[in-house]
Structures are given as C-alpha cells and as structure tokens.
Sequence to fold (528 residues):
Amino acid sequence: MKMLRAALLATALSLPLAAGAVYAATPADALVIAQNIDDIVALDPAQAYEFTSGEINTNVYDRLVQYEAEDTTTLVGGLASEWAVDEAAKTLTFTLRDATFASGNPVRPEDVLFSFKRVVTLNLTPAFILTQLGWTPENIDEMVTIADGKVVVKWDGDFASAFVLNVLAARPASIVDEVLVTEHAEGEDWGNAWLNTNSAGSGPFVMSDYRPAEIVRLTANENYFRGAPAMKSVIIRHVAEAATQQLLLTSGDVDIAKNLTPDQISGLPADTVKVESYPQAAVHFLSFNQKDEELTPPAVWEAARYLVNYDGMTQSFLAGQMEKHQAFWPKGFPGSYDETPFTYDVEKAKQILADAGITTPINVTLDVINSTPFTDIAQSLQASFAEAGINFEILPGTGAQVITKYRDRTHEAMLLYWGPDFMDPHSNAKAFAYNSDNSDENYAATTTWRNAWAVPQELNDKVTAALAEPDQAKRNEMYIEIQKEVQASSPIVIMFQAALQIAMANNVEGYVNGATSDFVYYRLVTKN
Fold:
C-alpha cells in the first residue's frame, strides 16, 4: 500500500490538477508542501537572494557557524566545532568538525576557502554581505587562510568578532564541496550554472530535483553529521493559487500549505488541520521627510505615535498578517526590544501638538504601494490622523514607483517596510539610527538618509560603538538602548512586524519557521 501511495503521489506531483481528481495521502516518510516558488531566480548560495532560495539553501548547506532549528536565536557551531577570537589581530580561527558532504567527500579547510573565494570572485547579488569584511578578489587568499588544518578568517574594519560571526552565518557563507563543484564548472563560472539546478552541500538534505515553477525535491542526506532527518524526502510543489493549496491540504494531498489568505485560514477544518503563526523579520513603518518643515518638529513625531490605531488594525484586517511592534529590530532576533509603549490616544496627540505650539491642520501626501494590506493601512492612518488635524492625501503607486520616490527623497510621508540582510542588529541599526552625512550627494540605502533625518552625532556614535563591541551580550544591550532612543524620538514611526500563518496537517510536528526564509528548517519534522 505504501508503494502504491508513493506512486500515486509522484503522479499527482507531475500532473496538472484536474477537476474532481482524487489523490492518495502523503507517505509517512515524506513531507509534501504546496507553496508558490516562482520567486526563485538562483539556488547557488553565491547568487541566491530570494525567499524560497534561502529556504532551500538552509536545508542543503551548512556554514561554519549557524542558527540551528533547535534554537533560531542562538549562534552555534555548524561545520566548525570551535573557534578562537583575536580581536586585536582581527582574526577568527576555526577548527572544523569531522563531517562529510552529501557526496561522501570530506569537509576540508580548502572547501571553506574555495566557498568564500567563489562568492567574492563571482560578485553576484549577496556578495556584499561578505565583502563588507574588506574581502576582495585580490586579497581573499590573504584574508582567508589555512594553517595547521584550521581556517583563519581575517577582516578589515572596525567590527567586533560577534558581527563577523553573524556575517559568516549568512547565506553566501554556505560551504560547498570544492571537488564536486569543480567537476561541473564551465569556463570561469565556478560551477555557478550547475549549482543553480543542483546542490553540493553537507546539510541535512540534498536537492535531488528542481524544475522551475514546478517542483523542488529534497532527499535526506544519510551522511549528515547530526544524523539523517526523519523525512526521507521533502517535496515542495509549486502551487500559485491559494485556493488550490487549500484544497490540496484539506483533502490530505499535501502536508503544509504556505500561502493561504486569512479568509482561507479561518475556514480550515480544525479536526484535521492546524495553523501556526510565525513572526517575520519585516517591520512596517510610517516616516516623515525632514525636507518638509512642517514635519520637522519632534512634537509631530511624538504625536504621530499616538495616532496609529495599532490594535484596531491588527485585530481586524491585519489579523494573522501583522502584530504590533514598535522597534526597528524584529522580535525573535537576539537584541530585539519588544516593548510597545504607544497606544492609540487622539486626545494625548492633540495635547502634544498644542503644548508645542504646532498649528493645524497639517496637510501631507502619503505614498503607499497600491496593494493590500498597504492601502488598507494607509486609509486607517488617514482616518486616525485626521482626528488630530494631520490630513493625509494618499498617493498609491507601484512598488517601483514608491521606492524610487523614497530613494530620491521627494516624498512627504511614506508607508513602507524593511527587512534585515542578515541576522545582526547592525543590519537595521544602520538603516534606522545612523546617518553621518545627510547631504543629497551622499546617497545611502537607509531610512534615515531617505527621510533626510540628520541623526544626532551621539546616536551615530552609539551605533558605531555597538558595531565594534566584542561581547555579544553587551552588544545586544547596546542595540536595545539604541532602539529605545529611535522609538522615543525620530521621524520614523515603527508600527508592525509581519507575521506568517502556515497551515499544516495535525500530524506534522517539528516544523520550524524562523523570522526569515533562511530560518526554515525541515530537519526536525516528524509525522505522527
């Protein structure tokens, strides 16, 4: 019977859905997922930058250090069994554990050097995460060296080793099998073309099949150093339509549906399906361009924090999609500040404006991406801010139009979201609390510069000091204090953190979905 079910499942996964079709239940040792995976552009960790790509990379590759499924908030050794820090010399020395790639080849220090060198040399989209350490194609052989069977990593910059470790836990720092990749290199592509349809990692799974906008099949790596996962295969089927995902889940043809709407979530049968909610890394905010004189008084910023109907939105049209969060570093990451001191209080906002001598009405244009839930949030803000005499004229546009205007600093007020590039608080602190040169000529990809906010030098200095602090616990405390300052007084009003609802069969246990796609883990999944 199991063989028959597996055969029927394979047929279902390879054929388009037909009306009235009947599918068998999923095998006990296979996890089958319905998901929109058409965002995949690349799967080579030196190039991959999309959400689904990150998920696949995490499950097929290891890094020297990483955030594991058992605890996505704690950095632990991956392929490195231990490491030594020399802050003065700006070096980290890694000792590798006894591990093998899925191919059976041993993991060697040479593989680490090769992996980092190919990222820097190819210089594709995510390479900046590693090159910020001062690595270049010309100096990489001096910055990453092998000595006594260990890997010595150097960096050039005023960075703490704690920051460097977080960089090395990021996606482009995945370690690939040099021997296997070199066998499939074409010209000077460092195996890039082959790695975009195959894998060469040491992680818990191997990518055994990838067909764009159709299927990704992962097979358990029996050589995995922590032991082979219980699921012998993970099958991610491309299902773009949420209604089809819902049908497949409720009929038992898939175990997990990842892209259901809130209405579909609410209509699922509780006796066979459960819904888990996972905080995500994106924070959503309202910001004011400081080139507009009416928006520069700190009293306007403070009043704005009391004119957002946080609970009204999260308990109605944003239910299940976002949760109240008022600091720039997402909840669920080390160093997050999760207090939410601001509530919707129109009278308090009016008093703040009056005490500061602010004349109302203030008429402001509000740029917003023309899709839900952004337009719904904008309409809520328009209604609540009008109660205190701040009138928003909503200007909807495409994502490209809105972001281009933001980068040009030609907006007045802006409704947008922001997510970190890697799991270190500096990734967002630089965006929300640092701006050392506010001139128009000094373009910076930060919310501070784009809103023309000349950050006080004292706050700039705190961000710089936190970046250089060697003790991670102390660094986290420093970032919490920085978040408190930005939360209390800045032209950026952080309102929400995105949440992701995933529906799954009741018998699925051990699925882990952290705050980013890089923290999606299948290794611990079992089916009871």
In short: Residues 472-488 form the longest helix (17 residues). The domain at 279-499 is CATH 3.10.105.10 (Dipeptide-binding Protein; domain 3). The chain has a mean pLDDT of 93.
